[in-house]
């Protein structure tokens, strides 16, 4: 079942693409990385993800799978005997991990991105406060999910670790842009330590983008509004 050629359509700077790459690394799967350029979509991307036209797309044995969290779950299902399990084994823990992963994309990330596009000081401050509040919720989620272990998933990186951890480079870029720390020892001690562990994990470290390179990229993607 686990054989077949694997390709990934994506870009080095994308959080969502990084999720798929971490999952492939955790499972020791070799793949061809087909790099897209932001602002222009390849024929293959449009053909493989005609609904959303977004990366990542995993192509396994010529069949496309879209949406980062779905790709991560697919990788876990297909390569179930290779590397560690990505989803928690208990159905309740799986449901909770999926709940928080949806929260991260639908709420936390939306507030975080809004800091980069905010108009003026007041709006920026309001989004900073929103991210603070939402990050504190994630600190509590970490304490509950990890049950005293190193990662959301327990002893090793799993679904929720990937869902949040893939944002850590961009989080740092926003922290620098806003001159405000969201992860720190006093406000979010558990998440702060978790973030360091996550970034140093062998499945993550080689693909975590350099912050200066990412910050430069972010300035092009989100030019500061004038006035
Ligand atoms: N919900 C999607 C989001 C994917 C997404 O937003 N991809 C971005 C890259 S970070 C993209 O393809 N952007 C290009 C565009 O929107 O044209 C997922 O989880 O895969």
Structure in words:
The protein is α+β, with helices and mostly antiparallel strands and 227 residues long. It contains nine helices and four strands; from the N terminus they run E-H-E-H-E-E-H-H-H-H-H-H-H. The chain has a four-stranded mixed β-sheet. Helix 4 runs antiparallel to helix 5. The longest helix is centred in the middle third of the chain and has 27 residues. The model has no long low-confidence stretch (mean pLDDT 95). The structure holds glutathione. Glutathione binds next to helix 1 and helix 3. The site of glutathione (GSH) has 9 residues, from helix 1 and helix 3.
Profile the largest sheet: 4 strands, mixed
Bound small molecules, by name, code or SMILES, are: glutathione
SS-derived structural category = alpha+beta
Radius of gyration from CA coordinates? 18 Å
Outline: globular
The low-pLDDT segments are none
Spatial strand arrangement across the major sheet: 2-1-3-4
Number of helices: 9
- What is the N-to-C succession of helices and strands? EHEHEEHHHHHHH
Give the tally of β-strands.
4
> In terms of quaternary structure, what is this?
single chain
Give average pLDDT, whole number: 95
Give the helix proportion (percent range).
Answer: 40-55%
Distance between the termini: 57 Å
Set out the fold topology:
Blueprint: E1 6-10, H1 15-26, E2 32-35, H2 43-48, E3 57-60, E4 63-66, H3 68-78, H4 91-117, H5 120-146, H6 159-165, H7 168-178, H8 189-200, H9 211-221
Parallel strand pairs: 1-2
Antiparallel strand pairs: 1-3, 3-4
Helix pairs in contact: 1-3, 4-5, 4-6, 4-7, 7-9
Bound molecules: glutathione.
Glutathione (GSH) binds at residues 14-16, 54-56, 67-69.
């Amino acid at each position: 079942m686990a054989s077949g050629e694997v390709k990934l359509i994506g870009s080095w700077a994308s959080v969502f693409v990084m999720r798929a790459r971490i999952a492939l690394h955790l499972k020791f799967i070799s793949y061809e990385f087909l790099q897209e350029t932001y602002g222009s979509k390849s024929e293959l991307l449009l053909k493989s993800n005609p609904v959303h036209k977004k990366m990542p797309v995993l192509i396994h044995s010529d069949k496309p799978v879209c949406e980062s969290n779905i790709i991560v779950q697919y990788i876990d299902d297909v390569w179930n005997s290779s590397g560690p399990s990505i989803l928690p084994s208990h159905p309740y823990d799986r449901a909770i991990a999926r709940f928080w992963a949806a929260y991260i994309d639908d709420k936390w990330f939306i507030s975080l991105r809004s800091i980069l596009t905010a108009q003026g000081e007041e709006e920026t401050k309001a989004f900073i406060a929103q991210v603070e509040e939402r990050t504190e919720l994630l600190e509590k989620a970490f304490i509950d999910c990890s049950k005293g272990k190193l990662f959301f998933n327990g002893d090793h990186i799993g679904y929720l670790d990937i869902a949040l951890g893939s944002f850590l480079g961009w989080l740092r870029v926003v922290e620098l842009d806003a001159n405000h720390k969201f992860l720190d020892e006093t406000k979010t001690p558990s998440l702060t330590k978790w973030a360091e562990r996550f970034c140093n994990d062998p499945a993550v470290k080689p693909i975590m983008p350099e912050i200066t390179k990412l910050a430069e990229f972010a300035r092009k993607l989100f030019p500061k509004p004038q006035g």
